[in-house]
Amino acid sequence: MGTGSIQLARVFGIRIGASPSWFLVALIFIVWLSTAYDGEYGQTTGYVMAVTSVFLFFLSLTLHELGHAWVARRNGIDIAGIDLWFFGGIAKLSRDSESPGEEFRVSAAGPAVTLLIVVVACIVGLVAGGRDDFGDALVLRDHPGPALAVLGWLALVNAGLFVFNLIPAFPLDGGRIARAIAWKFTGDRNRGTRFSARLGQGFSYLLIALGIVLLIRGDAGSGIWWILMGWFLGQSATGAVVSSRFSERLEGVTVADVMDTQPVWVPGDTTVLQAQDEFFLRYRWPWFPVADPTSGRFLGLLHQRRVDDAVQEGRPALHVSDVVDAEGDEAFSVQDDTPIEHLLGSEGLRSLGALMVIDRDDRLRGVVTIEQVRRALSAASPGRV
Fold first, then answer.
1. How far is Cα 152 from Cα 262, in angstroms, rounded to an integer?
2. Confidence band (pLDDT; 50, 70, 90) for 268?
3. How confident is the model at residue 385 (pLDDT cuts 50, 70, 90)?
């Protein structure tokens, strides 16, 4: 459905993007709603209503995903961004949930926001138009006015989204909630995943069957849409089943099991001139980890650019501990007891190609590279990675 993502905005530091397929869906919705509104409100008004409706709908989807993202952040899960695409939106989390409670909270947050949007739209509609006029807007009759018609449509479409999302079929939010409940009762995340994913596979067959029926009856647009939706859900559910079995094979494997235990590192009291001569010119690497020479505590990453800049500025005696970015380099470290599968969503690993491995006292213990992670994954799943 298109690759890449175009940034639309940033909210609380979270990137909001849209794939090319999203623009196609937005256009289809605008044309469809314009056709529906034109007969009652005129072409110009109908077009404005259609654009407004589509904007508010996708704003609702964004708020839904921001609900997931906000709760995920509160539970210590980083957010790589939110993308709108052909079938709605997706919040890209840096890792999977670590407990049933965490899974339940993150999964339920999106539907809770959607329900809140329905309630707010109804309250605003009732205040602005009264029970009778807004009631007409909700049941799509008598056309009470452009503003109430848009509010009524927004309330209805979000109510439908709320109900659909709570269906206990993975990867819908209801399926993730079902996974959390099954995980809680069985004590096994992978068993919980397979339970909800099997439900998702069954539900996908129902959607595809519905699409085929609609095609037979001549409703090609709706039929194709539900077939595509069913196919997407089925593929995601099947992928979750495979992933759960893959995770079982990786169970118990931590970063400490695959890391390089004797990395080349720079003592923090080394001068930048010494670091240039003894490390960068010798090894020809673009960066090195820096650690306290006494305690072994990881201080940050030393990049060649910073060393060269310090030497050119006439500060060759400056200690390397003074040129590292301790806070900024936290994204490039990982604790030694971290399960290896948690590195699959690591932005730091993808951008740098390696992560510094530290213990609970922040002492540098080793370095794990992306190649080492790949070998571990290949060993767990021969022929798949």
1. 64
2. very high
3. very low
Is residue 314 within 8 A of residue 337, CB to CB? The reply is: no
DSSP state of 142: S
Cβ neighbours around 131 below 10 Å, total: 9
Average pLDDT over every residue of 348-371:
90
| 166: DSSP letter | T
Would you say 193 and 179 are in contact if contact means Cβ atoms under 8 Å apart?
yes
Here the tokens at position 259 are 């890391």
* Token pair 């005696």 in the structure block, residue: 317
Quickly count: other Cβ atoms within 10 Å of residue 142's Cβ: 12
pTM for the whole thing?
0.70
Residues 6+ apart with CB under 8 A from 97: 75, 77, 103, 106, 180, 189
Report the alpha-carbon distance of residue 228 to residue 211 in Å, rounded.
8
Say how far apart CA 385 and CA 381 lie, in whole Å.
7
**CA 253 to each of CA 183, 219, 379: distance values in angstroms, whole numbers, following the listed order:** 21, 51, 11
Give pLDDT tens digits for 30-63: 888 888 777 677 788 888 988 998 899 999 999 9
Residue pair 301/290 in contact (Cβ under 8 Å)? The answer is yes
The phi, psi pair for 47, rounded to 5°, reads -65, -45
Q: Using CA atoms, how far apart are residues 258 and 255, in angstroms rounded to an integer?
A: 6
Cβ-based neighbour number of residue 59 at 10 Å = 12
Which amino acid is residue 226, in one-letter code?
W
- Better-scored residue on pLDDT, 177 or 241: 177
Place of tokens 């809770």: 112
Q: CB neighbours (10 Å) of residue 374?
A: 12
